[in-house]
Amino acid sequence: MPDFKQLFVNNKNWADRIEQEQPGFFKQLSEQQAPEYLWIGCSDSRVPANEIVGLLPGELFVHRNVANLVVHSDMNCLSVLQYAIDILKVKHILVVGHYGCGGVKAAMTKQRVGFVDNWLRNVKDVYVMHRDKVDGLSDENERLNLLIELNVMEQVRNLCHTSFVQEAWERGQELTVHGWVYSLRNGRVKDLRVSHSCNDKIDDIYTVDLAEFIKK
Prior knowledge:
One of its GO terms (molecular function) is carbonate dehydratase activity. InterPro entries: Carbonic_anhydrase, Carbonic_anhydrase_CS, Carbonic_anhydrase_sf. The protein has 216 residues and is of the alpha/beta class. It is built from 10 helices and 5 strands. The chain is globular.
């Protein structure tokens, strides 16, 4: 219990420090939320979204799950996505994986971890799609790192296939989807250079018929 109570002490110290450094910060924060970024990252406790990119509370809208997945049947993720795009009008969506991801490793090595195995089936699908490329590497860590990168790339594609993203582009809203990987070893972010800001490069089978949307 003493350790638990320390969290309240930490909170008070943090709040006092922020208010001292930026008087009126919390009053302003309570009155509006206008982030330009949506972060979709892993639930791993070693990956603190705001701190990694040096942003304060209110500047980054965050959604996290095991292995940073964008699954089209996940109402939680889709709700966050729709709210971020349509209500908050974010300009950038960041899919951020991290090297050493336990979820991706469990999926690749067929490790049983419980109920979450069902969720990680989505990572296994990514592995199957890129099996030759991943298995072409002899070093186990290199294979894991490659699958982590490929998983981020596939989640970027999944985002671009959603109606919310495509509708935003169709109406001319400024929105770019990015794929990054964070290194726990040095704290640096790697840009995988798979950014998309329009429908042009999306396979036609995934494009949404926006005729009715345009009429509205």
